[in-house]
């Protein structure tokens, strides 16, 4: 079997199959723990995770835009939900909040007296797009409930972490932290043909081993190819929509520009015509006034007995005009 997928050495982590393979299976639990510890950067240390049921998060890849294949809890019972968001969605933040309600409500103790104490919930969004309403150049955003007056965290058990992948631009030589290295892997894994020398940590041994397509069984290879097709089809849909939007915007812009240009031209033409008419009218009026004044003077000189030639020289009128007076 030869496919487009075989041209790449490592899987594309933005596909449903690859994301689940690398981060959502007991076999590769070490990879998930390594990623989370790098993400939390010492704020907490995760020793172990237990995978939880993701059924209510969507079972079919073609039915959803996001990949919800990682829902787990750590050894302290804290819930962690990770989603790989392929494309922008109108109410993305709303949905993110909505999905956070599942791990919150599941903590209710049924049939017993419960004091409402909750374990911490973390929702991590790996976004293959930039948020429109976020002006910061930072690719990482950590969101908690905050008192808007004091700017202090009001409730520290609900945390949203959003990673805008298009804003991460570091090269291999610029990777300063372990988390930088994870971001580099997530963004570039499908394009790599060799393991970068900067990624020498033990956890990356396991990741590159699990991500190598040549090591897949026939069943896994087929599953990956199908998932890759869905991912590419989705990207094509998005690209087509963008191109159509650009084309339509250009057409509407040109049409509106022509319409405004014609209207403005007519308006300016009318104004210009009025200005020229007034100017010509004034010029004509002045000329006629001067001619009438010259006729009056010529008549007076003629009555005084001056010759026609002398009168013409003084007034500028022709001899015929003077004789007609």
Describe this structure in words.
This protein has a six-stranded mixed beta sheet with strand order 1-2-3-4-6-5, sandwiched between helices. Helix 6 runs antiparallel to helix 7. It is elongated. The chain contains eight helices and six strands. The protein has two domains: 4-215; 287-323, no CATH class. The longest helix is centred in the last third of the chain and has 86 residues, at 218-303. Residues 1-5 and 59-67 have low confidence and may be disordered. It is of the alpha/beta class and 325 residues long. A hairpin with a 6-residue loop joins strand 5 (140-146) and strand 6 (153-164).
pLDDT under 50 segments (min length 5)?
A: 1-5, 59-67
Ends distance: 113 Å
Task: Please describe the biggest sheet, giving its number of strands, its sense, and whether it closes into a barrel.
Answer: 6 strands, mixed
Q: What fraction, in percent, of the residue positions are helical?
A: 40-55%
Q: Over the alpha carbons, how many angstroms does the gyration radius reach? A: 40 Å
- State the shape: elongated
Number of helices: 8
Would you tell me the overall average pLDDT? 83
Structurally, the number of domains stands at 2
Strand-residue fraction? Answer: 5-15%
Strand order of the largest sheet: 1-2-3-4-6-5
H and E string: HHEEEHEEEHHHHH
Structural class computed from helices and strand pairing: alpha/beta
What's the total count of β strands?
Answer: 6
């Amino acid at each position: 079997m030869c496919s487009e997928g075989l041209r790449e050495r490592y899987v594309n982590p933005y596909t449903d199959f690859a994301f689940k393979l690398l981060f959502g299976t007991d076999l590769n639990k070490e990879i998930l723990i390594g990623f989370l510890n790098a993400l939390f950067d010492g704020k907490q240390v995760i020793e172990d995770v237990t995978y939880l049921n993701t059924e209510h998060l969507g079972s079919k890849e073609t039915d959803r835009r996001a990949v919800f294949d990682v829902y787990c809890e750590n050894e302290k019972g804290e819930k962690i939900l990770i989603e790989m968001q392929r494309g922008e969605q109108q109410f993305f933040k709303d949905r993110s909040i909505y999905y956070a309600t599942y791990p919150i409500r599941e903590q209710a103790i049924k049939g017993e007296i419960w004091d409402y104490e909750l374990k911490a919930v973390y929702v991590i969004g790996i976004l293959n797009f930039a948020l429109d309403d976020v002006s910061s150049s930072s690719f990482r955003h950590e969101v908690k409930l905050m008192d808007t007056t004091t700017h202090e965290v009001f409730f520290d058990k609900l945390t949203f972490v959003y990673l805008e992948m298009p804003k991460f631009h570091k090269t291999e030589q610029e990777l300063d932290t372990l988390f930088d290295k994870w971001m580099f892997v997530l963004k570039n894994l499908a394009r790599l043909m060799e393991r970068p020398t900067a990624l020498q940590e033990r956890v990356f041994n396991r990741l590159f081993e699990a991500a190598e397509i040549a090591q897949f069984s026939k069943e896994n290879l087929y599953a990956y190819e199908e998932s890759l097709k869905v991912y590419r089809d989705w990207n094509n849909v998005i690209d087509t929509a963008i191109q159509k939007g650009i084309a339509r915007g250009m057409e509407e812009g040109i049409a509106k520009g022509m319409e405004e240009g014609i209207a403005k031209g007519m308006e300016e033409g009318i104004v210009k015509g009025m200005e020229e008419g007034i100017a010509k009218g004034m010029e004509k009026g002045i000329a006629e006034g001067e001619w009438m004044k010259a006729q009056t003077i010529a008549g007076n000189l003629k009555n005084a007995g001056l010759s026609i030639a002398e009168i013409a020289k003084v007034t500028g009128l022709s001899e015929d005009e003077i004789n007609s007076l």
